[in-house]
Amino acid sequence: MAYWLVKSEPSVWSWDQQVAKGAKGEAWTGVRNFTARQNLVNMKKGDKAFFYHSNEGKEIVGIAEIIKEAYPDPTDKTGKFVCVDIKADKPLQTPVTMAAVKAEKKLADMALVKYSRLSVQPVTSEEWKLVCKMGGV
Prior knowledge:
single chain, alpha+beta, six-stranded mixed beta sheet
């Protein structure tokens, strides 16, 4: 299993909206960056992803699961981009803020810190364990 982080502005798509989709999940569409696209391509069914509220809140609020691997993004008219389907797995007991991530020296190399604009990012198993611990799961 691999670990990831996906970002969404809560005013556009929030954790609560993701949870409301239930077991059928929702397509993670709209990614228009080639590095993020490649990360979507690399996701496998069963992988886990942190759900991060960007711009508004700037915090990891939950854990999602990849339930369908990459396929053409129906919102992309160029045919160059892909999406995956994700479902909410569980919320973090305590959201982990960007400030808390930056304050933790062991997370200094985390993609969330180094590539703050990248919307789909890999997360190492060590980073995953530490953020889960910080979030109370």
